[in-house]
Amino acid sequence: MSETATTAAMCVTPGGVSGIKRLFIVFAVGFLAATGAAANSFLLCYMAAMLLLLPAVSFYMGLRAVRGIHVTREAPESVWAGDTVEITLNVQGGSGLLYPLLRVRDELPAALQPDGDLEAQVTAGADGARATYSALVRRRGVHRLERAVAMASDPLGVVDFHLPLPAVTAIVAYPRPEPIQWLTLPGSERYGAVDMARPMARGAGVDPDGARPYEPGDPLRRMHWRATARTGVLNVKEFEEARSLSALLVLDCWNGVPGGDADDGPFEVMVRAAASLASMWLASGAAVGLACGPELGPAFAVARGSAHLLAQLDALAHAAPTDPRRLGEALPALAGLVSPGVTLVALTADASPDLVRTCTQLTSAGVGLQIIYAASGAGLAEAPATWLSAACDAPLLVVSSGPGLPLQLQGVGGVLRAA
Q: pTM of the prediction?
């Protein structure tokens, strides 16, 4: 999708070998003019005049090649971080006869890495003139491509013309979910922690799961007569009941987060971990919500399904550390917006006393809370994480990664360890 903007001024620069060509033209014109004057030859003087006019005609042709054109860009609206995408620049307007003189070069943000040269020759086809190149999407986020540059050289190669043209496009790069360890969360069920790797529990479902001794109050329609005849003791049919965990992932978007939004900083580790946990839990049938900063969009709802996962990945693609509130200030309000039994899973890189006080208050009030501390690089920030685990009532894990490294989820000081 492209937008209209003001076109920047055209830039005219000397061609790569323009100095030699200019000297040749000046020498040839001078030689023909001098020879014609000495020989009193009108033809040689006419040839000198034509040769002098040739650079002007060539200049005009190069100028006409870029005049009156505009560029639109074809690019996917959404991709996965790490994908290689194909981007096409479409050229309209101008003189189609001069397209062989025309080239275009795209201007990419740092998050997009071109696969080869960004400068491409414009080729005319049945659907118009176009130039195509490939680029690697290095990280998640919303990447804006603001403009392209049309370039042309005059036929003699004396000068080059550069005309910046507006071609605004936004590419949304979703964080790619990664394999991550299962973990047990507190407060997710009536009777305490539930292992997400085994979300099935005994109950009153529809799938038979053996027999158990009769207890007063069991309905007679559940009598297991074969087991009763075999054992001589009244038995009833047992069924398994699916109980899915409900969790709200809370991403710490404090604008003072250590490392900011660097490509390999703790905030990016938090985003990757949130995408991976949401994908894993939703695939298991859990209900998951996501909070990224003060604006609560569709991703905040504690719900299920692949469409809900896409909404959460989109929210993570737009996430940035811009919230003036620390996590300790944001958690109590979020806890009041979710239903009882929903576990708050807070991802943070801020080991502050304010967070410890908030965690103590929430756990004392019976709120299920899990803290995941994010670190990047080989060092796992053991000092802040260990202090936080010792001071905080909530169980704590450390998630870490680095450039080209997978996510690692582990316990600190034996507080809790991923399965």
A: 0.72
Q: Is 296 helix (H, G, I), strand (E, B) or coil?
A: coil
**Domains in the chain, start-ordered, CATH in brackets?**
1-174 (2.60.40.10), 184-197+244-411 (3.40.50.410), 202-242 (no CATH)
Residues 6+ apart with CB under 8 A from 390: 413
Of the candidates 328, 329, 308, 311, the one whose C-alpha atom is nearest the C-alpha of residue 319 is 311
Whether 80 and 173 have beta carbons less than 8 Å apart is answered as yes
Report which residue type is found at 398.
V
Per the document, the length of the chain is 419
Residue 164 Cα distances to 12, 70, 95, angstroms: 12, 10, 18
Task: Evaluate if residue 4 carries a pLDDT over 60.
Answer: no
Instruction: Give whole-number Cα distances, 172 to 69, 175, 319, in Å.
Output: 28, 10, 11
275 — pLDDT class (breaks 50, 70, 90):
very high
Q: Per-residue DSSP letters for 316-371?
A: HHH--S-BSS-HHHHHHHHHTTS-TTPEEEEEES---HHHHHHHHHHHHTT--EEE
Instruction: Report the 10 Å Cβ neighbour count for 389.
Output: 22
Burial of 39 (0-12, 13-18, 19+ CB in 10 A): exposed
Q: What is the pLDDT of residues 102-156, one digit of tens each?
A: 778 888 888 898 887 666 667 766 556 778 888 999 999 999 998 888 877 777 7
Share of the chain above pLDDT 90, in %: 16
